Amino acid sequence: MLEENKKKRFISLLSDTTFKHLFKIEDYKEFFNVIIKSIIDMDINDFKLHDAELNSGNEKRDYRLDLLLVSDLVDIVISIEMNQFPSEEAKYKNRLYVYALLAKSLNSGEDIKKKRVIQINFNNEKNPYVSKASYSVMDLNTHKEIKDFKIHEVYLDNYKGIRYNGDNKEEAYLSLFTATSYEELREIVGDDKEALKIVDELERLGLDDKFGVIYDNEEMQKRMINTARNWGYDDGKAEGLEEGKKEGKTEMVVSKKIKLNANIYYIIIDLEYRKKDNVTKLHLKDFNDDYYDDGDFTILIKKIENNYSYELSKNYDKHINFMANVLYIYDRVSFLKGIKEVYINNIDNTT
After folding, report:
1. pTM higher than 0.90
2. d(CA 175, CA 168)
3. Residue 4: pLDDT over 60
4. How far is 185 from 182, CA to CA, in rounded Å?
5. What stretch of H or E contains 98?
6. What is the pLDDT of residues 166-185, one digit of tens each?
């Protein structure tokens, strides 16, 4: 009786946390196979979440890590991006991440094993021209395609209002990502058994306090980043950090400028407050070692800038463009040590 009276939070499908929970359960794999196969024309029944995400021992951290699907049968990595707050910066970051995944083979020494990267972006927005789009690199004259990677964009709002009619399973499944209530979810799925299993599980998760904490944390993080974008990324001002400390916040997202060659980049850093010697100070989130700088990170930025060189950048891109610089940043300080994303601001880089 107590469980029935308990307030149920709505759990959206458009969430990393939700995807990871459901994808790990074999009984729900066919639901995701229908969706993803409709986008990339590939069966993913043999794919699983990347091991690093399953074995860290920190459940909260596992849910926050990137969505990567891998298979023992093919040399392909599928990157899933749930873009609840689409922006040009977010789309740019997603493209950078594709290159970062490709660049990881640089650290493999003699055992380099090239993998193809497929990225799927589920965008919470409408496109007036297409519902799905696919991008790759192609020579303009010969139309020869570089097959190292492909990026697929799905514009979810184009599917809003679609209901399952027995003959539109793929479109109805994508419509589920736009729902804002359990009633709407059930209206969309009708009598589809695979989708009804998903809705039943979402409702169960809505009553699960442990899952709810992790889900709410992801929502908060994404809203914080989106708010930071709307405020213009004010470079992580000291007064903001102090306010967070006074208000008793446990986490913080700040932005720092870094200049490499002639370009200015922004590093978005994930922080948390910790007590050390009875003093509360900021540290890189989920990282226990160097570059503790009470949120300022001037030492870290200077170290990256001072070690930068043209020769070093050539390891990443022989043409030495912005991508080489961004990959250099990621390699110098892995995003697993706190960096959430890197982007370039066209206003600061006028030509």
Report:
1. no
2. 11
3. no
4. 5
5. helix 88-103
6. 999 999 999 999 999 999 99
Nearest to 76 by CA among 106, 101, 97: 101
102 and 149 Cβ atoms separated by less than 8 Å: yes
DSSP state of 10: P
Pair 268, 255: CB distance under 8 Å: yes
Cα–Cα distances in Å, from 144 out to 137, 147, 153? 9, 9, 21
Give the CA radius of gyration of the chain.
Answer: 21
Q: Answer yes or no: are the C-beta atoms of 334 and 291 closer than 8 Å.
A: no
DSSP state of 57: S
In the predicted model, what is the mean pLDDT of the chain?
75
Sequence-ordered strand ranges (E) for 157-235: none
The span from the CA of 261 to the CA of 182, in Å, is 51
Measured on CA atoms in the order 231, 233, 236, 237, is the torsion positive or negative?
negative
4's enclosing H/E stretch is helix 2-5
Q: Is the Cβ–Cβ distance between 342 and 96 less than 8 Å?
A: yes
Phi, psi of 70 (to 5 degrees): -135, 160
